Amino acid sequence: MKDGVDMKQSPSQPAAPHVLNHKGKDELWQWTATELAHAIKTRAISSREAVASSLKRIEEVNPKVNALVEVCAEEALAAADEADQAVARGEELGPLHGVPVSTKVNSDQAGHVTTDGIVAYKDNVASEDSPQVFNLRNAGAVIVGRSNTPSFSYRWFTNNDLHGRTLNPWEAARTPGGSSGGAAAAVAAGMMPIGHGNDIGGSIRYPAYACGIAGLRPTLGRIPGWYGPPNGDQSLAVQLMSVEGPLARSVADLRLGLAGMSDFHPRDPIHSSVPLTGSALQKPIRVGLLRDAGVARPTEAVNRAVDEAAEKLRGAGYIVEEVELPLFEEAYKLWYLLCMMEFKQVMPLVEQLGDDGMKQAAKHYYAVSEEWWGKDPSLSDYMKGYARRGTLIYRLQEFMQAYPLLLMPVSAEQAFEQDADIASVESMRRLMAAQWSMMAVPVLGFPAISVPTSVKGGLPVGVQLLGRRFREDTLFDAAEVIEAHATIETPIDPRF
């Protein structure tokens, strides 16, 4: 109970667990969250066993990858014991009961520092949990560690002067993504089955893609969250574009994570308690294949992944048709007006506290976006931008009456070379173009999922699905079809 609200009431129950299949999974850290939750609930294993296995894996691989910047071993084992006692007492259990998870170091966790990758914040101990962390605990999750993020959670590269660089377990010379790169690398390497992330410009979907796992950016308002000073104000762009969500090695675990994170919390100003499952879509379900919004042509590997995913969906009875939606290009550029120009208000703080990589990335972002919006857009430009946002949303909603799902690239390229964003303005221009969907989707506010498909040239590749608002269930259904035919397997040992 919090502020008179029963925080255990979920909008709906999660889907039933898949049939457990532990073949080839000798260690508990290799199990999915769905498998662990079911086994803990039925007392086939204990939460302590699951958490101890996770901590052992962290000890083995985190020094190589640097995905977690804090390991909460003693606290996690105590929480696991409490979880096991609750099972023994026959208490009502949350969907993530006893399952090890990580939280991102830009979100408040009581008794732990919220650094956001900033040296000056190294002693910034939180007094209470943020809504996203509260809900994970309330769902029964056991927090085993805090994941790395770039300074100010600003880049697609997870590196900062306080915690150092997180490496992609597939290839050290490639980014694990950002800003939830620590969470993605940890999940991909088997440190825990679910990692918490947040996404205002691709920070869940892109790290999941870069590390070969799945990631969900839910509908705006689906999962309550707070990103900002505990007693301060969130900016308008954060309120209207930033979301919290899970990263995992399976789509079933994303379902579980969404169920565990979606409960109401009074600190979120726009949360909506909408059932997790909606009415069945009319069949056959039509899927629009959006290969290129007119910004960046996908590489051969990305194109092949999209084609393979389309083929699998067709085989499952979906109708997949290529479409053109120029509104995505407009939304992509609009993000740099509504979000990045607003961020300029905190640039004096960035100049004071940010690291050199973050400052250089900011200069390159603005050098490119100023070509569209000028150096100092006016209040009128800003107001017109938000007005245009509403028009683009209703146009996409109209389109999705006929095509309730869209299939598109996550990025036009595979995982970028480390620090490609700060190499030059031209390099940043290439990256920004490749990431058009990373920025367009937050402007529009629709749910999207990143799902891996295969490995090309030693690096993961996958696709993105976008659905109607509050219809994450339809994304999961389609993503599971793609996942069933995927040739990529995680967790992996770091390949360096």
Automatic annotation (TrEMBL):
Q: Where is the Amidase domain?
A: 49-475
- Any Pfam family the entry gives: Amidase
Q: Which domain of life is it from?
A: Bacteria
Q: Does the record carry Hydrolase as a key word?
A: yes
Q: Does the keyword Ligase apply?
A: no
Give the range the annotation lists for the signal sequence. none
Q: What's a single GO MF annotation on this record?
A: hydrolase activity
Q: Which UniProt keywords apply?
A: Hydrolase
Note the PANTHER family from the entry. GLUTAMYL-TRNA(GLN) AMIDOTRANSFERASE SUBUNIT A, MITOCHONDRIAL (PTHR11895:SF7), TRANSAMIDASE (PTHR11895)
Sequence similarity: Belongs to the amidase family.
Which named protein is this?
Answer: Indoleacetamide hydrolase
Q: Which source organism does the UniProt entry give?
A: Bacillus thermotolerans
UniProt lineage: Bacteria, Bacillati, Bacillota, Bacilli, Bacillales
